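User: If only I could read backbone structure tokens as easily as an amino acid sequence. Underneath my words sits a plain record pairing an amino acid chain with its backbone structure tokens. This is the protein in question:
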Amino acid sequence: MALFGSKKPTPKTFVVLDIETGSVGGVLVHRTPGEAPRLFGETRVDLAIGTTRDAHTLRERAAHALERVAQSLSHVAARVRGNEATAHMGNASHAVAFLAAPWGTPNLESGAPQFSADMVGSVQSALASTFAVPLSVHARASATLHGARLLFPYEENYIIGMPHGEVSEVLEIVGGNARSHGTLPVGRNTMVRTFMSHGGLHENEGRSALKALSLGHVPAHLSEPVRHTYEHVATHFNDLATSHGWHEHGRVYSFAHDGDWFARALAHSSAAKKFPDGAVVTAIRAEHFSPYVAGHAQVPDLGLMLGGLFVDSHYR
């Protein structure tokens, strides 16, 4: 027992980056011991949807987006430091980056995730001219699993779907812990490309159409492309689920910051027939986590919320 008591933890601000194959997001997370974390300065940059999906091109686009996101957060931090009442929140002490597949993947056999050295280098480069702070890197799946445990702590067996831009991840949870992990070569950009090629839409129009799907609105001229793409996504999911024995589970949770198209693809296609009667596919949205944070953007970002909650729990 210390003579003069233990030193109280001090409030800290973290730079949190969320990097996947379709976008890069960033947020400043202010953590005060005993209080819910406060998120501010949220920003997300979509990567251009090109005709090629090679790893080198995707990494270059992500690297440029990282620079824009880091600059945006740096400007927010500077403004916060300029206000006497909030100055303490503008001094970041640590940066935490969450990398989605293929740049960051869980290795369940070794117990340690694997990361792309090139992408980690891009993160370090983006931070070098904005935040001179230590960097920690985690698999994006780790933040998602932490969020799942927070929302339904008493559920032990389920599937987590994590759709991204070009690639989607799937995590099997058994006994509350991750047992297997896999990836699908499809993502939201698959949907947008279909709208562009078969619906005659431009990229921005395709993105807007994808958002409309989350509200259950399917324009008549897109009904066939939507059905076709849902089945395409479901086929890849079924193949992966069959190889891992995932069809025995009765619950699938989709964590997507870009709407619930992935959940709809599984629930309203051939994928649903493979699961037991009574199986449920649920889309998890950012609003589900609002009670766990002290503040966030008017339109919250699920990926950034998950990162912020992970940091709040794992860093002191």
Observations:
- The chain has a mean pLDDT of 89.
